[in-house]
Amino acid sequence: MFFELIKNAKDKWLISPKCKISDFFQYIKDKGALRDTQIEAIETYLYLKIECENKPLATLFKEAKFSQDLNVDELPLTSSARNKLKTEPAALSLYHIACLEDKNGAALFKEMKSEIENHPGAVDCEKVIDDIFYGVTYSDYLFSLPMGAGKTFLMACFIYIDLYFSSLEPENKAFGKNFLVLVPSGLKTSVIPSIRTIESFDPTWVIPNPAAEQIKNKIIFEILEENKTGNKSNKTKNPNVQKVNNHSPIEDQEGLIFVTNAEKVILDAIEYRKSSGVIDIFENEGDTNYKISNELRRLLGLVPNLVIMIDEVHHASTDEAKLRRVVNKWVEGGNVNSILSFTGTPYLKSAEKIQVSANAKFSSKMISNIVYYYSLAKGIGNFLKTPTVNESDADRDTIITSGLKDFFDKYLDTKYSNGSLAKIAIYSPSIEVLEEMTYPLVANFLTSIGLDPNITVLKFHNGNRKYPAPQDAELQFNSLDNPISKIRVILLCQIGKEGWDCKSLTGVILSQENDCPTNSVLQTSCRCLREVDDATKETAIIWLNSKNAQTLDQQLQSQQGITIKEFQNRGLPKYHVQRRSRISNLKLPDLDFYQVCVKTETKIQTKANPKVFLNSFDAKKYKLKKQQVTIKDFNGNIKSIIEQENIDDAQLPITFNEWLNVIVKESFGGLTYQSLTDYESELLSVFNKITSLKDDLSYLDSELNHALIRSDIRCSFVDKITFSSKEEVLPDHSEWIDSDTLKKTKLVLKLSELFPNRETDKELNDIEKGGGFISLEKLDESIHTIKSLGGDASTLEAKRDLIAKKDKTLHYSPYIFDDSNFEQKIFEKILALDLLNTKKLEVYYNGDRFVSTFKIRCYKKEGDKLYPIGFYTPDFILLKRDDEGKIYKVLILETKGRIYAKDFEDKKKFMSDTFIKMNNDEYGYDRFDFLYIEDSLREIEIVQTITRAIEDFFKED
Questions:
Q1: CA 743 to CA 440: how far, in whole Å?
Q2: Could you identify which of 120, 218, 382, 731 might form a hypothetical disulfide with 255, taking C-beta atoms 3.0 to 4.6 angstroms apart as the criterion?
Q3: 155 within 8 A of 461, measured Cβ to Cβ
Q4: Same domain assignment for residues 701 and 742
């Protein structure tokens, strides 16, 4: 919903000169460790942090941050409505929201749209926006990703990114320095162990060394999961408090990561009075109950520049008001940087209704503060296994037996690349049912197919008096993805509904309605979908009784906007396409060219010599100027003039060591205590000059500017450095394709996106392997026959043309035009040109930025300096070789939709003004040219423009 507006604005920022961190994103993509959804989420996160300055969403919408490209003059509005949208940014935003459409093209908020258009004066747009975002006045961003998308690793990414950017700009409050991860209490056995993976996260996935290693060494990880002790005594002790106290003084820390429980720990001190509906937080710090129950909450509220991460936020929703009250209290303390929430369930149980005016309401079931959304359906076949859902109205035993037979028929011999065996989970409503009904049934079945249930079955539950928790069950449960595990069937009771990460789980059985809570059917069913090796080739099975199947369908529709059919990929077919390189067939040489490279050089102007500064220190130079304050009456007459006293640090005693610590602390890691003590005598001399003794205690001289003194002392320890940038023109080359990416199966939604089509591609491949050759003469005969009979021979003609030009194009096959239908049309138009033959030209599609390696580093000139604006991956390359088969001339052709034209202007200017001229100068002839085609041109104009460019550039010398 609103995230669509944020995404559009983010995408434009990424390719604009305002985005100064293109290289940062390129590093992450080149590293290749993160999924597409994680990279997109990081792009959104940094857009909100940098370009949007970490502002609250309500503020950003009231400023029309995401609606700046909306042209009011082109909208069919009354003059009063148009004037309101032009003069009130909040009105522009709200109308932009009102114009959002569903997947069928229908307006989502017709009532609000109509009210703004017809009665603009009746709508208080700023208030409506505040209400939509729940009245929150701080940064509260929700990332909605399905299970298996890597939410935990994404948290780790955000943590390292914040610490990295805060180290570059210590005073920039947009980035956090400490982190609190809140998990729901019901998921302690599942979620907290998975959160531990943050500790093992490789920071080089997002940050290059040495910065990554430096930050990793600085991080301190604390899991606050201990229970309070002494419940029956008069005094309760909280070991979690001691863990926090170990980092005192807490106000000075950075790099702390606390993981704790939202309801049990943070909300202990809150009372909800049902009779009055009032949420009460004890505020009397003298109260013993306050000190005992609130000590952890109070301490965490003191952690500076704190980013609060709430995992599985939909669980916290039942206590949303309580949790929000705690967060609000922390925000009042000024230490909270932002709230980051993560969920796979972006919908509310019932629609949120907000009064827009007396006659109109805003109503939506989607959570408003979602800034990034990746659907479950999009994840299937990408990083989730493709499921088959089986529904039965039979009894428990029949469903379990059928499910087991189906599972072992398909996956008996399935062993994943890490050596783990495929497994199926069967849920039971109680321990008694699991032990007395499910296990005997499973044991008998396994025995019948030759498997030993004592080795292949894991019973995992918390135990009761009759059936204690199975010995070593937890160890086996945590080792299921290990190749040493022989478990094939996992029997569960009230465990493993969510947060359980078992990639080798390939099946789930929910045979009765109460096998898991009704509101957890979707989450429980999806436990078996996590990718192991390659989700494009992996499947899973889900067996449900009719009631659970009905619940699953309802939850899929209400929480994900899809049906069971779409969930199984039947309603939205995807095709697995394997591409292959043809570079060797074409004997296509590497593409040589020159790149602009701007290098920053540092030069030490003056070597640090603190001894000289400290020995020559003169306290008189730091005398504070007396500041006068003039007091006037309401008529402007001066009543008196007083001198303002300096209230710096002079009122409190200070020791020499404390003074040194202040200098170290204010250096933000630039100085160490040891580096100062090497000059102890000189610093002590300075300290004595700026302090005075009173009752054997040292006090700072109140007439001196001590902040400036400390700053100058720190500067004396640092080399004086000058920075200069140097532009270089360096040779580069492209091997055309990334072979590792090309080897991966690509998922497409439409076979029409392929060029050539599957049949022609297969024939082309057969020809190159030495078989299945069809002569052009034979194809001509077939075409003539079809036409003589009045048939349509266009498909055969296209095949004939492609086979005739197979040595002129397709450096890999097939090309996939899944981003732009316009690109595909242009490509087919070029292939149809006779000039391709007469000029002996070749044409290659280069527009897949993941496959193509020909990328141009672009810059924008501001003043006399060049600033990087990111890489440019050209759409098409038309080339001509010389008599030796080497690439002689290259025409770079770029296609753009009109709506994206403005975003490409800077790169277009760089290509035309800098890249082409620079390369031609270096080669000594017109080796490169650049052509830009926009979809605003008519088809005939496009063909004429391309033809003219080819004739002009590839003319005979």
A1: 46
A2: 218
A3: no
A4: no
Residue 878 belongs to some domain of the structure: yes
pLDDT in tens, 221-255: 887 776 655 444 444 466 777 788 888 777 778 89
- Separation CA 90–CA 126 (nearest Å): 6
Sequence-ordered list of residues with C-beta below 8 angstroms from that of 587, at least 6 positions apart, any chain: 885
pLDDT of residue 273: 43
748: left (phi over 0), alpha (psi -120 to 50) or beta: beta
CA distances, 640 to each of 116, 321, 519, 632, 633 (Å): 55, 52, 71, 7, 10
Q: What's the number of domains the chain is made of?
A: 6
**Angstrom distances, CA of residue 163 to CA of 139, 401, 829:** 18, 52, 50
CA distances from 308 to 142, 260, 299, 311, 324 (A): 12, 11, 14, 10, 12
Burial class (CB in 10 A: 0-12, 13-18, 19+), 475: exposed
pTM given for the model: 0.62
Write the CB contacts of 407 (distance below 8 Å, at least 6 apart in sequence).
Answer: 422, 424, 506, 507, 541
Q: What is the pLDDT of residue 648?
A: 47
CA angle 329, 332, 338 (to 5 degrees): 85
User: Nearest CA to 752 among 815, 829, 833?
Assistant: 815
Helix axes 89-98, 125-132, angle to 10 degrees: 60
Of the candidates 269, 267, 265, the one whose C-alpha atom is nearest the C-alpha of residue 241 is: 265
Could you tell me the pLDDT band of residue 274, with boundaries at 50, 70 and 90?
very low
Claim to verify: residue 164 and residue 282 sit in the same structural domain: yes
Q: Which residues pair with 603 in a beta bridge?
A: 722
702 and 744 share one domain: no
**pLDDT (tens digit, 9 = 90+) per residue, 600-618?**
777 777 888 898 999 999 9
What span, in angstroms and rounded, lies between the C-alpha atoms of 163 and 158? 9
Full residue range of the structural domain in which residue 531 is found: 376-573
- Do the domain assignments include residue 594? no
Which of 246-255, 270-279, 558-567, 917-926 has the lowest average pLDDT?
270-279
**CA 404, CA 383: separation in Å to the nearest integer?**
25
Note the pLDDT tens digit of each residue in 536-565: 889 999 999 989 998 998 888 877 777 787
Exposed/middle/buried for residue 742 (C-beta within 10 Å: 0-12, 13-18, 19+): middle
Q: Examine residue 261 and state whether it is found in any structural domain, yes or no.
A: yes
Cβ contacts of residue 397 below 8 Å, gap of 6+? 437, 441
Domain assignment of residue 119, yes or no: yes
**pLDDT level of residue 781 (50, 70, 90 thresholds):** confident
pLDDT in tens, 510-534: 999 888 888 888 889 989 999 999 8
- Give the DSSP H/E element, type plus range, for residue 601: strand 591-606
HEC secondary structure over 253-265: CCCEEEEEEHHHH
In this predicted structure, what is the pLDDT of residue 503? Answer: 92
